[in-house]
C-alpha cells in the first residue's frame, strides 16, 4: 500500500515534469531582454526566465519563478534585488516569506518584530529572514556601492497572485499605499488629521517602490512611518532582559505586527530617530562566510545552514547552503531525500547533471554566474566546476531540518555503507570486484575531476540515456521507496 502511494506520487511528479517544457513555452516571451542563447535551451532544471517585477531609477527586482509540483510542495521563487547607492525599498509587507542573502554591498533592513521596529545592518554574506506578512523596508546605506540581494520567496502562504504580492505601506501615487484604498474620510478620522493633510501624505510619492533618499543615516519620510517611540524600545528592552529563557522560546513563535502600531507611529509623525540599539532581542542576521565549512577537503568546501544553526529558519522551513568547488572538482553524485534544492551560481562556470528516477539523464547543462537551477527531491544530481576556476554556488533547500544529502558515489557514500554482498549481487559482480571498484575513490563528497579533455568518464549527450550506470537506476527507485 505504502509503496503504491509513493509510486503514485512519483508518477504525478513525472507527469508534471513532462508538462514543464510546455509551460516554459508559454511564458517564454515574457522575460524581455533575455540572453538569446538561453532562450534556445530547454533545460528543465534550469530556471531561465526571470521577470522584472520592480524597475525604477533607483533599482530593480527580478524574480525567477519555480515550478509547482502538485502534491509535493509549493514552488519557491528566487528574487534578485539591485539597489543604487542611497536608496530605499519602501515599507511593505509581502504574502511570502523571504530569506535575504547579501551578495554585494551593505543593507539596513527595518522590520517589525513583535510590535517593535528592529533595524539590522547587513553585510556581504549575511542571511536574514522576513516572515510572510511582516512589514519591512530596506535601505542601501552606502553612498557609492550598489546593493545586491538574492532572496528566496517561499510561496507556501501566498494568496496566489503572481510570484508574490506586495502590499506597500508607504507610498503615494506610485507605488500606491494599501492605505489609499480606504475612504478618505475613514482615513482622515483614523489618522485624526484634516483631509488636506491626509492628501499630502497619500499622494506625494511618485518614485516607485525603490526610491532615492537624501540621508540614509537619518530617517527618511517613509522610513519614519515605521519608527517607534524610543520609550517603547526601552521598555521592551527591560522586559527582554529579565527573561532570557522565555525569549528563546518566543523566537520560535510566529512574529506578529499590528496596524495599530504602524498607524500610531504615522499619526504621531515621529520625527525622532531611535538610535539603533543592539540590545533589542530579535533574530539577528547570520553570516555564511564567518562560518567554518561543514565539509572541506583539497577540492572544495560546503556549508549547510539549518534551524539548529539559525533559529529563524525553523519558522520558514527553509535551509541555506553555500558550496565552493575548486577548479575541476565535482560534488559527488548525490540526492536530497527530504528537500528540493534551488541554487544560484555566484561565480565561476561549470555544469550540472540531473538524473531521472528511471536512470536516464534529465539534464546536463553548462552554467555560469547568475544561473538558477533546481533539483526536485529524490532526483540524483551533481555539480562540476570547470577547469577555468572555482565555482561558487549558493541556494535554498525546502527543509530547515538537517537535510542529509545521500552520496551515491565516493568514500562514505551509500555504496560503501550498505552491505557489499547484497550490492555486489545487485550489480551482478563478485563481492571482491565490487569492493575493488567502490574503494578506488578515496575522497568523499567533493571529488577531483581530473580528466584530459574530452572527459573520459563523461558520456556524450546523445547516448547518455544508455550509459547511465544501472546502480543509479536501482538507487533512484530504492530511494523513493525508502523515504517518506
Ligand atoms: C485629534 O487631534 C486633536 C487636536 O489636534 C486632539 O485634541 C484630539 O484629542 C485628537 N483625537 C484623538 C482621538 O487622538
Ligand atoms: C573558493 O575556493 C578557491 C580555491 O579553490 C578560492 O580561491 C576562493 O577564494 C574561494 N572562494 C570563496 C568565496 O571562499
Ligand atoms: C525516463 O523518464 C523520463 C522522464 O519521465 C522519460 O522522458 C524517459 O523516456 C524515460 N526513459 C526510459 C528509458 O524509460
Ligand atoms: C582486487 O584488487 C586486488 C589488489 O589490487 C587484486 O589483487 C585483485 O585481483 C582484485 N580482484 C578483482 C576481482 O578485481
TrEMBL record:
Residues 45-199, 286-435 form the Cupin type-1 domain. It comes from the Eukaryota. Keywords: Signal. Residues 242-253 have a biased composition (Acidic residues). Residues 1-25 form the signal peptide. Residues 234-253, 447-467 are annotated as: Disordered. The keyword Signal applies. SMART domains: Cupin_1 (SM00835). InterPro entries: Cupin_1, RmlC-like_jellyroll, RmlC_Cupin_sf, Seed_Storage-Functional. This is Vicilin-like seed storage protein At2g28490. It comes from Nelumbo nucifera.
Amino acid at each position: 500500500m505504502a509503496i503504491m502511494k509513493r509510486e503514485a506520487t512519483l508518477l504525478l511528479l513525472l507527469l508534471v515534469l513532462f508538462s514543464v517544457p510546455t509551460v516554459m513555452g508559454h511564458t517564454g516571451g515574457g522575460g524581455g531582454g533575455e540572453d538569446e542563447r538561453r532562450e534556445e535551451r530547454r533545460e528543465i532544471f534550469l530556471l531561465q526566465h526571470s521577470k522584472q517585477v520592480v524597475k525604477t531609477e533607483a533599482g530593480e527586482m527580478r524574480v525567477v519563478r519555480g515550478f509547482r509540483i502538485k502534491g509535493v510542495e509549493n514552488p519557491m521563487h528566487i528574487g534578485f534585488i539591485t539597489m543604487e547607492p542611497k536608496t530605499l525599498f519602501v515599507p511593505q509587507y509581502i504574502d511570502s516569506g523571504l530569506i535575504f542573502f547579501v551578495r554585494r554591498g551593505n543593507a539596513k533592513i527595518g522590520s517589525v518584530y513583535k510590535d517593535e521596529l528592529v533595524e539590522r545592518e547587513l553585510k556581504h554574506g549575511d542571511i536574514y529572514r522576513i516572515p510572510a506578512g511582516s512589514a519591512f523596508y530596506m535601505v542601501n546605506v552606502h553612498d557609492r556601492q550598489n546593493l545586491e540581494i538574492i532572496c528566496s520567496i517561499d510561496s507556501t502562504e501566498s494568496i496566489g497572485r503572481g510570484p508574490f504580492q506586495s502590499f506597500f505601506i508607504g507610498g503615494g501615487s506610485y507605488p500606491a499605499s494599501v492605505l489609499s484604498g480606504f475612504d478618505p474620510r475613514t482615513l482622515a478620522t483614523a489618522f485624526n488629521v484634516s483631509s488636506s493633510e491626509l492628501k499630502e501624505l497619500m499622494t506625494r510619492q511618485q518614485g516607485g517602490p525603490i526610491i532615492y533618499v537624501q540621508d540614509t543615516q537619518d530617517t527618511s519620510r517613509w522610513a519614519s512611518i515605521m519608527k517607534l517611540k524610543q520609550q517603547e524600545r526601552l521598555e521592551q528592552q527591560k522586559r527582554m532582559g529579565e527573561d532570557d529563557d522565555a525569549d528563546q522560546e518566543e523566537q520560535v513563535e510566529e512574529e506578529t505586527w499590528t496596524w495599530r502600531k504602524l498607524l500610531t507611529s504615522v499619526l504621531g509623525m515621529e520625527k525622532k530617530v531611535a538610535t539603533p540599539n543592539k540590545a533589542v532581542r530579535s533574530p539577528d542576521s547570520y553570516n555564511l562566510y564567518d562560518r567554518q565549512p561543514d565539509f572541506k577537503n583539497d577540492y572544495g568546501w560546503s556549508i549547510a545552514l539549518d534551524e539548529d544553526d539559525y533559529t529563524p529558519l525553523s519558522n520558514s522551513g527553509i535551509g541555506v547552503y553555500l558550496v565552493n568547488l575548486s577548479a575541476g572538482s565535482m560534488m559527488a553524485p548525490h540526492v536530497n531525500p527530504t528537500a528540493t534544492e534551488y541554487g544560484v551560481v555566484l561565480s565561476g562556470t561549470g555544469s550540472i547533471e540531473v538524473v531521472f528516477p528511471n536512470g536516464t539523464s534529465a539534464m546536463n547543462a553548462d552554467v555560469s554566474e547568475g544561473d538558477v537551477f533546481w533539483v526536485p527531491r529524490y532526483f540524483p544530481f551533481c555539480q562540476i566546476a570547470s577547469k577555468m576556476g572555482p565555482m561558487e554556488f549558493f541556494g535554498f533547500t525546502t527543509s530547515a531540518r538537517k537535510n542529509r544529502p545521500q552520496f551515491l558515489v565516493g568514500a562514505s557514500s551509500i555504496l560503501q555503507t550498505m552491505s557489499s554482498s547484497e550490492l555486489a549481487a545487485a550489480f551482478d559482480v563478485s563481492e571482491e570486484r565490487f569492493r575493488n571498484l567502490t574503494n578506488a575513490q578515496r575522497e568523499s563528497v567533493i571529488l577531483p575531476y581530473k580528466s584530459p579533455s574530452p572527459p573520459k568518464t563523461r558520456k556524450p549527450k546523445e547516448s547518455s540515456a544508455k550509459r547511465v550506470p544501472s546502480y543509479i537506476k536501482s538507487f533512484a527507485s530504492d530511494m523513493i521507496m525508502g523515504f517518506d
